[in-house]
Amino acid sequence: MRLDPALQSAMLAAVPEMRAFALSLCHKRDRVDDLVQEALLRAITNIQSFKGGNMTAWLFTILRNNFLNEYRKSRHEVSDAEGYFVATMTSQPDQEAHLQLAEFRSALARLPHEQREAVVLVGGAGLSYEEAARLCRCAVGTMKSRAFRARARLAELMGLDSPQDLGPDRAIQAALSGGNLRWAA
Known about the structure:
Elements: H1 5-26, H2 29-45, H3 55-74, H4 84-88, H5 94-109, H6 113-124, H7 129-136, H8 140-158, H9 170-177
């Protein structure tokens, strides 16, 4: 698109004032040139809507509207320069989780009833040892022993050295770790 030389001269003459205006809006020297450039690009793209008159005022209006639009958008964005939030938003592939869950269910089914009950109540349901013991009508020490043996047997059946070998599935990790207990290999 070829711009009328008079309009081009008027735009170029307004650049220093536009820079000063942009600085007054954003207060960041590194953003000033970007705002001015964007305003000029929009002005050139929409030059047919310029009805004559004060070119500087028209450019200021474009610059101000562009700045306000960017500001409104940025209020809904989270600053993540280090990439921390983006990294936490990733998800693991589903295929491996389904296989792990199937393997876990199979191993869980092979446990004796008391051990399976203990690991499900303490690890899966998140009950304390005291709550699980009361529910099963046994001593707290018995519940701890059953849960420990269940976790050890599950790890053996699944060929695991530690809960980290389980991957991302929190239900499986919780059942093997027993909530508060540390992993005992």
